[in-house]
Amino acid sequence: MFVFAAASAATGQPASREAAAHASLVVIVNTQNPVTELSVGELRLILLGETTRWPDGRRITVAMRESDQAERDAMLRLVCNMSDQDFTRYLLHATFRGTLKSSPKVLETATGVRRFVFNVPGAIGYLRGDEVDGSVKAVRVTGVISPGPAFGLTLGTR
User: What is the rounded distance in angstroms from the CA atom of residue 104 to the CA atom of residue 153?
Assistant: First the structure.
């Protein structure tokens, strides 16, 4: 499973890097999305904006936390093998070249990511495992993941 978030479920406030240090990330999609599994390579292409449609033709919208959040840093390192700065540079270049169809939706809290994914049928995001609830669907991530935790976070593969 893979989810992205950096906020306390109780307060909706950003979690400290220390609090997030022992968390697993889970990838989430809207409950209407038929996808139940993604390879690390497929997830990477989605995060980089290179894959823009789900198999059913629905447009993909990526929901991410703000820069300097441990979960975002971990996701980018584990899946894309990039720093946040590298990712931002990549998006700017893709926008300039005209190859990026849409930029990720950046949200402040885990609750914001979860609500966005709940409300947008083609959305995908990531949260800490303890922030996932029944309003969204966890997606299994398969394949080889970059070795070792990034910023104390790991990508769960349930």
Answer: 21
